[in-house]
Amino acid sequence: MAMNAPIRNISDTALWVAMYRAFESERPDALFCDPHARRLAGERGEAIVHSLPRGRTLAWPMIVRTAVMDEIIVRCVSEGARTVFDLAAGLDARPFRLALIPIIGWIVGVVIGPSFCAGVVAFHMMFEDVLPIPPAPAPGPIRI
């Protein structure tokens, strides 16, 4: 992929979506508040959004998806779910935004392929101070 392309690698999509969460969080009538989003997105996330045609106007599907998934997770926990498996989570701050960590186990899964494994792990480690790895559920079988 060209170096001047808006999205250079899979990790850039996490920065892009974090910027959309920051935009929503900064609205006075926001559907959700992600206090970490702007810091996670950083200058690169903002640059990605501004480099895309209609980049800012494309935020609404991601914002709606985030709000709907929040509602689904909260409902499932209220109905008895005790573990969330967050596959391909990017820089999702949901475990911290929803304040569910003391109640449930949260497994953050990152889709890793052999060609970019080291890069994805290194990328996530850069944000460990903002988004520490949530505690895993107690050992035992996990019903999937």
Structure description:
This protein is mainly α and 144 residues long. The chain has a single domain, classed as Vaccinia Virus protein VP39 (Rossmann fold). It is 44% helix and 7% strand. It has helices at residues 10-25, 37-51, 59-78, 94-97, 117-125; strands at residues 83-87, 105-109. Strands 1-2 form a two-stranded parallel ribbon.
In short:
The protein contains five helices and two strands. With 144 residues, the chain is mostly helical. Strands 1-2 form a two-stranded parallel sheet.
List the helices and strands and how they pair.
Blueprint (H helix, E strand, L loop, with lengths): L9 H16 L11 H15 L7 H20 L4 E5 L6 H4 L7 E5 L7 H9 L19
Parallel strand pairs: 1-2
What distinguishing features does this structure have?
mainly alpha; two-stranded parallel ribbon; 7% strand; Rossmann fold
